[in-house]
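thought: user wants a sequence for this fold. calling inverse folding tool.
action: design(structure=
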């Protein structure tokens, strides 16, 4: 669900869904598919954080906070 929401650019739903997906812990031997899904959810969360920063006009990749208005 998080992956689909991110593809449709519905960032809030993607963030909430990915956050919910990473709450549980799984057995590495038995539940490898769920662990892979959790790993993808971490990636989706990172992409959501980037989108949140871009919405606030914060330029990413600088040591100190730089907004797009500063340029």
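)
observation: tool returned 71 residues.
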């Amino acid at each position: 669900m998080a992956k689909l929401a991110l593809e449709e650019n519905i960032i809030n739903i993607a963030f909430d869904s990915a956050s919910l997906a990473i709450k549980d812990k799984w057995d590495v031997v038995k539940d490898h598919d769920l662990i892979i899904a959790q790993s993808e959810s971490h990636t989706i969360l990172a992409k959501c954080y980037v989108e949140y920063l871009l919405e606030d006009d914060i330029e990413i990749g600088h040591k100190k906070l730089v907004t797009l208005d500063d340029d």
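thought: summarizing for user.
answer: Here is the designed sequence. The longest strand covers residues 58-59.
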